[in-house]
Amino acid sequence: MPSPKAKNPVRSGGSPVLGSSNGRYEFMSLTKPLNRSSPSHLLQRQGSEPTTARLRASESPTRRRGSSSSTGSASGQGLSEEDGIRLNPSFVRVALSSLLAIDLWMSKRLGVCACEDSSWGSVRPLMKLIEISGHGIPWLAGTAYCLYKSDSAAGQEVMLNLLMGLLLDLVLVAIVKAVVRRRRPAHNRMDMFATFSVDRYSFPSGHATRAAMCGRFLLAHLVLAAPLRVLVLLWASLVGLSRVMLGRHNVTDVMFGFWMGYCQYNLVEMLWLSPQTLQGLLGQLA
Ligand SMILES: CC(C)=CCC/C(C)=C/CC/C(C)=C/COP(=O)(O)O
């Protein structure tokens, strides 16, 4: 495998399957036998990795006693099954680091409306309009207005549950953002309208969770005509795409956001407030 270039972010994590030689990192095969000429410090480097060290400590006494032969096997005859198990966590780390690097690279390439001077800077106002269409304030205000105006019990029930879903979404997204604390992309200009303090973090995209949850909600309860259903799907997709194009989010923030919003709708269905439940709640309050 070719060695990654110096600026490759995959390397910066100091992944244990990357050997270091003269300051350069090389990928090492997890399955092929190690070459005899492999510098011994490559193996030492793996051993110094905490996960590997922990696994070593749990090796059986038999294996520890025969450690000289096992080293011989690792350096000459090929890796045993146990060695494979020991290296697997490192493989997962490299896979995750690579995914992260691809995510950052794609997000930067797609952030074509991040500012007016960007390659698609002229589309930025349209993207910001789409951003507002997925913002929490218009959705909360619109739902509250429809709830107030609705004169049928069924309409009120649907609007009340949408309101509950929107509030639930705000809380859940704030919790995940506060726990994960992933910074927004460096090319983002923080000129978003009405944000909370957790909105300085980017994972997950609150607009994507809302678009997915409200999209599913609209399709299930309000929008029945086929052309309108297509429009709802198109709107939700555009909201997600605009987050990356505006440079607000990385691709994974939006993808996870869509998944989270999709699941949130299941939660809304589970917690569905029926008129009876509502009457009970209101009775308790009165
Ligand atoms: C009544 C009430 C609590 C309203 C708050 C609505 C509000 C300020 C929501 C924040 C929406 C927002 C800017 C989310 C960030 O979305 P990302 O896609 O950038 O994560």
TrEMBL record:
Top-rank lineage group of the source organism: Eukaryota
Primary localization: endoplasmic reticulum
The Phosphatidic acid phosphatase type 2/haloperoxidase domain, residue ranges: 157-269
Catalytic activity: (2E,6E)-farnesyl phosphate + H2O = (2E,6E)-farnesol + phosphate; (2E)-geranyl diphosphate + H2O = (2E)-geranyl phosphate + phosphate + H(+); (2E)-geranyl phosphate + H2O = (2E)-geraniol + phosphate; (2E,6E)-farnesyl diphosphate + H2O = (2E,6E)-farnesyl phosphate + phosphate + H(+)
Matches recorded under Gene3D superfamilies: Phosphatidic acid phosphatase type 2/haloperoxidase (1.20.144.10)
Compartments where located: Endoplasmic reticulum membrane; Nucleus inner membrane
Membrane-crossing residue ranges in chain numbering: 158-180, 217-238
Protein name (Swiss-Prot/TrEMBL): Polyisoprenoid diphosphate/phosphate phosphohydrolase PLPP6
Organism: Perca fluviatilis
